[in-house]
């Protein structure tokens, strides 16, 4: 059984603030170790279910947060950037399931460290008219590749967002949001035991075959900056619905890769801290 793990940081056990998840932050070094412990719990669960091949993609910020020496030796690590497929780099049809560890809720929610990919720079996103964030877009892209999402871990808001998107995905809440930078934390050992047990149980269960969607999808993004939207109109196939909102049609996962280009353009035009 081949398992793919996409690991973000905002939804990791114990982390609540930008200083926990940004390089240079007062508690970033501690945060990256907490990140490793959550993903190691998921790896142990996957091994207990019979996984023979495990790939971990460091999907947060600079994408070099996980210390290779802190990662369980049974897993291979994809680290660094740029990555054409962002949080899903290395995901392939040959994988039997995907695990999302440390994920967070979309922009506009009151989840811990909530945002959609670029802090304040992205105000809203829709996939085929449905509000979406990192969770929904990762899920939809994985399904288009042919890989089911089995488990998601994060705060209670992230878990609720995943359940609303696909109720068949097992979720593990490692903290409950009190506000955007505050949470009621689950004890670390309890949270990691819950992750390990949930992954083992989910991967051991019989899962229906993934139905790969056919036909194009439409991705719409409302930016904080009209300058970003105007610049993106120079990319063939990108159209605008107003001065700050652009959209494009295409099939996933190609549309997900195109969105990565949009973010690189936006990053070149702005210098917005992600959690202002």
TrEMBL record:
The keyword Magnesium does not apply. SUPFAM superfamilies: Dipeptide transport protein. Zn(2+) 1 binds at residues 8, 10. The keyword Repressor does not apply. Pfam families: Peptidase_M55. Zn(2+) 2 binds at residues 8, 60, 104, 134. InterPro entries: DppA_N, Peptidase_M55, Peptidase_M55_sf. Its EC number is 3.4.11.-. The active site is at residue 115. GO terms for molecular function: aminopeptidase activity; metal ion binding. Keywords: Aminopeptidase, Hydrolase, Metal-binding, Protease, Zinc. This is D-aminopeptidase.
């Amino acid at each position: 059984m081949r398992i793919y793990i996409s690991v973000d940081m905002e939804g990791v056990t114990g982390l609540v603030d930008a200083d926990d998840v940004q390089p240079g932050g007062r508690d970033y070094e501690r945060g990256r170790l907490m990140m490793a412990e959550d993903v190691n719990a998921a790896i142990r669960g996957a091994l207990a279910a019979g996984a023979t091949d495990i790939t971990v993609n460091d999907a947060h910020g600079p994408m070099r947060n996980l210390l290779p020496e802190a990662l369980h030796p049974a897993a291979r690590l994809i680290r660094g950037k740029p990555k054409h497929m962002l949080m899903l780099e290395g995901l392939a049809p040959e994988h039997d399931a995907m695990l999302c560890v440390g994920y967070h809720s979309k922009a506009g929610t009151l989840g811990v460290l909530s945002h959609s990919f670029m802090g304040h720079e992205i105000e809203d996103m829709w996939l085929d008219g449905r509000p979406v964030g990192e969770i929904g877009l990762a899920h939809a892209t994985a399904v288009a590749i042919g890989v089911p999402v089995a488990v998601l871990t994060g705060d209670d808001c992230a878990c609720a967002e995943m359940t609303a998107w696909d109720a068949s995905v097992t979720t593990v809440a490692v903290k409950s949001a009190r506000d955007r930078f505050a949470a009621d934390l689950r004890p670390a050992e309890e949270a990691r035991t819950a992750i390990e047990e949930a992954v083992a149980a989910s991967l051991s269960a019989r899962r229906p075959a993934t139905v790969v969607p056919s036909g194009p999808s439409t991705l719409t993004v409302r930016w904080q900056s009209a300058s970003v939207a105007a610049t993106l109109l120079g990319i063939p196939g990108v159209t605008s619905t107003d001065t700050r909102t652009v959209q494009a049609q295409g099939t996933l996962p190609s549309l997900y890769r195109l969105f990565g280009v949009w973010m690189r353009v936006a990053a070149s035009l702005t210098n917005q801290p992600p959690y202002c």
